[in-house]
Amino acid sequence: MSGVPAQPLQAYRGSLLSFFGDPGDGHCESDVKFIDDGLLVVENGLIKAADEAQTLLPTLPRGTPVVDYRGRLLMPGFIETHIHYPQTDMIAAYAAQLLDWLEDHAFPAEGRFSDAVHAEETAEFFLDELARNGTTTALVFGTVHACSVDALLGQAEKRNLRMIAGKVLMDRNCPESLRDTAESGTRESAALIEKWDGRARLHYAITPRFAVTSSDAQLALAGQLAARHPGVFIHSHLAENLNEVKWVHDLFPRARSYLDVYESFGLLRERAVYAHCLHIDDEDRMHMARTGASAAVCATSNLFLGSGLFDFAAARRAGMRTGLGTDVGGGTSFSMLRTIAETYKVAQLRGHRLTAWRAFYLATLGGARALGLADRIGSFAPGREADFVVLRMDSTPLIARRMKSAPTPAEKLFVLMTLGDDREIGATYIMGERVWGTL
Ligand SMILES: [Zn+2]
């Protein structure tokens, strides 16, 4: 996977899709930009322009290279708002529900990350897999070991990725070998913030696993660390499984709700991202919306572990920010297209239809907004970082055939999100450099 050095000015011709806002349930012209024969112009790794090819081609200086992707679809790279890289090797593990799955599969796999060599090797495979699936930014769980973050962010820096990761904080209710303490977890997190946050395109996330595995003292120190570093992310899980919710109520009897535990320790604010948010009430949703915290919707994981169905209608009513997560290894695919397909089905089971426009919005600009990074990534607005993907539109015989009877852009997108997978990704670009591709 070698990067090809980009020219200072480079253009790409093909269909273009980008969003300015949340298209909601319909197709609002002001929120969606779809151009059938478009041109994406990149200068020094940033988006310079995205418009009709016939408008932009005459404006290019003579000799500007134009890559011909006509018949393909270019869009901003997918943005993953919740994934565990140390669980790469135990994806597709047979278990009952969340708490058994953690005990039997996740914790043993994470134990191996005390070995920095194993962490490095897994990080490389993981980042290759993201690129192969067109995912250009991710919010990533490490393990309790600081070296797991050094491995992932070190590799991400080499690849010039906008990537966010953190060391897990976990001082109780887990195997002894995976425990830190309130003090050591905070000390190591502070050192990792110092080392990585703001370096190259990298960010740090303070990462308590969930309320069950952190003591009051650990959550309090995590909140104090977050207050000292308002630009740093907070990343955790919330209300994934009913047995987990009950356990949290037993551990924190004075809290009004599971969310209230995090809020009382200062862990609810912008750039706080909570995976799942399934078993919460409207008051919780209002608190999340008011504080600017975000939900990472993880459909394949929620179905696989039998956890529940995310309530899109309630989240929208409350004005909660939402992005999409694969939640590998509880989730069953690295592919954002497979994840969108299952998200659509979850919405259907909740009596809510997810349009193709909104689905692709959530996978791009919606994810960037959920992460507070929409001024950098997630769209083709001028000045944004040129992380983008090229979708083939014909990756299987069935998709190629079905596209012929899908005349409108919305129909084509719906076919892609229903039938597409990693084979759809024709090329992935990071800051204007092609890092992976089959086209
Ligand atoms: Zn998770």
Question: Would you kindly provide a written description of the structure presented here, covering whatever features stand out?
Answer:
By secondary structure, the chain is α/β, with parallel strands linked by helices. The chain is built from 16 helices and 16 strands. Strands 5, 6, 7, 8, 9, 10, 11, 12 and 13 form a nine-stranded parallel sheet that branches. Helix 3 (116-132) crosses helix 4 (146-158), helix 4 (146-158) packs parallel to helix 5 (182-196) and helix 5 runs parallel beside helix 6 (216-228). Zinc ion is lined by residues 82, 84, 237, 275, 327, 330.
Low-confidence stretches: none
Rg calculated over all Cα atoms: 21 Å
Distance linking N and C termini: 14 Å
Q: If helices are DSSP runs of H or I spanning 4 or more residues, what is the number of helices?
A: 16
Going by helix content, strand content and strand pairing, the class is alpha/beta
Anisotropy-based shape: globular
Number of strands: 16
Offer a concise description of the structure:
The protein has helices at 53-56, 98-111, 116-132, 146-158, 182-196, 216-228, 242-251, 258-264, 282-291, 299-304, 312-318, 336-349, 356-363, 365-370, 397-404, 409-419; strands at residues 9-19, 32-43, 46-52, 66-76, 78-84, 135-141, 163-166, 168-169, 202-208, 233-238, 272-276, 294-297, 321-324, 388-391, 425-430, 433-437. It is of the alpha/beta class and 439 residues long.
Features:
439 residues, alpha/beta, binds zinc ion
